[in-house]
Design a protein that fits this description.
13 strands; alpha/beta; globular
């Protein structure tokens, strides 16, 4: 069955080809005097794999959460998603066709260890083994993430991230995956966006496991960071040579006015959103006065464990945090519009965030591991016209070029996402992909933005002396 559509491709390329004057601002990304820069795309296991009950996979907290009435739009689940578990070969061909250097994916813990402890599932391990080899065979560097929110349900039944035991189970899982895949990976991340796991999952109840307890959420955040430190210790003790890091979602916090209340709210937001993870990782302490967030219970040695040296840091950026204490709140200006999630488009915030981190922390090489735009895409006559997404990516790449020119050690950019997929509590209602997915037929169709991204990468690669990574993550 034909599942990748090329209809309308020529017209799409004509619409999406980057103009020379649009490439000039991006030149610092590939300047010959800078370390090599990689371009990639990203996905996550639960959002694309499907095959929720196949191949020996155990249940995850997202299986439980999504099957609970009222938790997701239309009651959507990741049972099938993009059926990547069965279509991984054609999906890797799709990635190769984009001309990217790298692919960022996550490993489903319950697929490789159904109970989160004890026996390993050889079918699950073999799936990721084939996936990594398939990427390398196509000249694509594999960047893996150990945890993108799909905790084995069996561990949640024993307390989940609220218990320290889960941090130790995670370290054992990390060590195993380092042994199985580490010799072929370009990088390995422990966690993706632990803020979401802790606060969306345990304080706001929007994400699995759907709990609402601020005190619990801050303790979960600590155990996530502890598990990160324990994992890095276990991997390095076992001789892992793969570059190790963590991925954090970040945004600058802007006060809606110059009032004392708004300024205080913005400062507290920054400490709770950015500082709550950056300060332990780089300064060995939690920030004081982070609004509702209070310091968790910390055992002796925890902070030293968390403060393991990082080979690289991943930052996910989508928008800024706008802080208004007025009733009703003063809305953000939204001068550049919003995406289909209702998030303000604000590329200036990416530059601001990078320069702030550069000034306040001793950073390893930095990758933008997620950045993308949800749009209400429509497939018409075999094509998807998404000029706003092209503009979004271009403006954020320009912000990266400015940051690199100002001394930030940026090594790569991963667009989120390769293809439309299961967008957590939004189900299938939101589309971030460069590739359109018809969920009824699983047909994939390159959007105009996919053609633009491919051609932009190719044009930058053709610049005299350009340094784009073929060994992404190892530079």
């Amino acid at each position: 069955m034909k599942t990748i559509s090329n209809e309308g491709a020529e017209a799409a390329e004509a619409r999406a080809t980057p103009a020379p004057d649009q490439l000039a601002p991006l030149a610092p990304l590939v300047h010959p005097g800078q370390p090599a820069f990689c371009f990639g795309v990203a996905t996550a296991a639960y959002q694309i794999e499907g095959a929720a009950r196949e191949g020996g996979r155990g249940a995850s907290i997202w299986d439980t959460f999504s099957h609970t009435p009222g938790k997701t739009v239309n009651g959507d689940t990741g049972d099938v998603a993009c059926d990547h578990y069965h279509r991984w070969r054609e999906d890797l061909d799709l990635i190769a066709g984009l001309g990217v250097d790298a692919y960022r994916f996550s490993i489903a813990w319950p697929r490789v260890q159904p109970l989160g402890q004890g026996a390993w599932n050889q079918e699950g391990l073999a799936f990721y083994d084939r996936l990594v080899d398939g990427l390398l065979a196509r000249g694509i560097q594999p960047h893996a993430t150990l945890y993108h929110w799909d905790l084995p349900q069996a561990l949640q039944d024993e307390g989940g991230w609220a218990t320290r035991d889960t941090a130790h189970h995670f370290a054992s899982y990390a060590e195993k995956m380092g042994r199985v895949l580490g010799d072929r990976l370009a990088s390995l991340a422990t966690h993706n966006e632990p803020w979401c796991t802790a606060f969306l999952g345990h304080q706001q109840g929007k994400f699995a496991p759907g709990l609402r307890d601020m005190r619990l959420a801050t303790q979960v955040a600590h155990h996530l960071l502890l598990s990160h430190g324990l994992a890095l210790q276990a991997l390095r003790a076992d001789g892992a040579r793969v570059p190790l890091g963590i991925v954090l979602n970040q945004a600058p916090a802007h006060a809606a006015s110059s009032s004392e209340a708004d300024l205080a709210a913005a400062a507290a937001n920054h400490r709770g959103f950015v500082g709550w993870f950056m300060d332990p990782l780089f300064h060995g302490r939690y920030p004081a006065d982070a609004g509702e967030q209070r310091a968790p219970e910390v055992a002796a040695g925890d902070m030293a464990c968390i403060q393991q040296p990082l080979d690289w840091l991943g930052i996910n950026y989508y928008t800024r945090n706008w802080c208004s204490t007025s009733q009703p709140p003063v809305p953000a200006p939204r001068l550049q519009g919003v995406n289909d999630m209702g998030w303000e488009i604000y590329p200036e915030g990416l530059l601001e965030m990078l320069l702030h981190n550069h000034a306040h922390y001793r950073l390893p090489p930095v990758y933008i591991t997620e950045n993308g735009m949800a749009e209400a895409d429509v497939l018409h006559a075999g094509a998807v016209r998404d000029p706003r997404r092209i503009g979004y990516v271009r403006s954020h790449l320009q912000a990266l070029a400015q940051a690199r020119a100002q001394g930030v050690d940026l090594r790569g950019y991963f667009y989120w996402s390769l293809m439309d997929n299961y967008e957590w509590d939004s189900g299938y209602a939101k589309r971030f992909g460069l590739v359109h997915v018809d969920y009824a037929t699983q047909q994939r169709t390159l959007k105009d933005s996919a053609h633009w991204y491919r051609d932009t990468i190719a044009a930058l690669r053709a610049q005299p002396g350009a340094r784009l990574a073929t060994e992404a993550g190892r530079g």
